[in-house]
Amino acid sequence: MSDPRERVEKLVDAARVAGDEVGWFEPLYATAKSDADIPWADGKPNPMFVEWLDETAPLTGRALVIGCGLGDDAELLAQRGFDVTAFDISRSAIHRCRERFPDSPVQYEVADLLDPPRTYRGRNDLIVEIYTLQTLRGAMRFTAACNIADFARPGGLVFALCRGRDESEPEGTMPMPLTADDLAVFERRGLTRERFDDFFDGETPPKRRFRAVYRRPVAM
Length: 220
Description:
7 strands
């Protein structure tokens, strides 16, 4: 069996040669023979997100899931009582979500984080960003982070999870670890940081992760 991460790297390289930095997402999902061909598709919600959700005071309201992939995190939020919208740039990914969860209350949509619908802005109590920013480079990453921050309503939270690195370390290849300053864009966009975990996960070998939570202040 071929390594799905090698497949992703080939698709990324081809998209960049074609001048389309995000053009690899759709062929990744469209040509996947099974979920095993998608490196981050574990068939369950992200455990580091679940851990945070379990230990956080009960949350309710409207949730927006960024780059939802095959929908497991979105479905978890719906089960917890959220009104959930989940989007992905890949039409095939959204089609798979609807096939996997035909009776789901989640609103699955095709949308581009770099040019999102205006209806997403300023209306969400919880925004979930897991591993999307680390697929983007430079100005695109900055634009995406700004848009994510703008999705939060006053009092709303942004949950972010990514691979992490120090400023002195090379960015490397996909997935590209973020620095603390990459995530500080949320603060420069008006949010307040409430939590920042810098840790190594339980994978073999362990991977360094950042898990952070930001809140949009309520105007007094």
